[in-house]
Write a structure and sequence with these properties.
This protein has 2 helices and 8 strands. It is of the alpha/beta class. The protein starts with 6 loop residues before the first strand and ends in a 10-residue tail after the last strand.
């Protein structure tokens, strides 16, 4: 039996702000808050342990801006890449310049705290929720 990714943890200066951003990006909902200020978000009606990993936004003070050792790649499920790019930018994402040539099939963006993530070209089928 192999392991599965159950959750991804992102350090955040403002967990509430990042939770709202990533809920908007992924269609997730808030699942819970811990005493330390961490906020867990995940698929509605499924939560922890489902087919998609949850995200935990953990309070952290410090300069963690820029390229994370782990970053998130997202793919649109119900629109083309250009339409999804427009939606992400409207949610508060910004374009990030990491030396792209302009010929890449993906867009490099940053969330409201500057954490880089990529919008891939390939569309994915949405996962069924339980």
């Amino acid at each position: 039996m192999a392991c599965r990714i159950s959750e991804l943890v992102l350090d955040a200066e403002d967990p509430g702000r990042l939770a709202a951003f990533w809920c908007g990006v992924l269609g997730y909902v808030e699942l819970g808050r811990e005493d330390d200020g961490s906020i867990e978000i995940g698929p509605p009606g499924v939560g922890f342990g489902g087919a998609q990993p949850t995200l935990v936004l953990s309070p952290h003070r410090g300069s963690g801006r820029g390229k994370l050792p782990l970053h998130i790649d997202v793919s649109a499920t119900d629109r083309d890449q250009d339409a999804e790019l427009a939606r992400l930018l409207a949610l508060g994402a910004v374009r990030a310049d990491i030396g792209q040539s302009g010929r890449e099939s993906w867009h490099v963006l940053a969330d409201p705290e500057g954490n880089e993530f990529c919008l891939l070209r390939r569309r994915l089928d949405p996962l069924e929720t339980v």
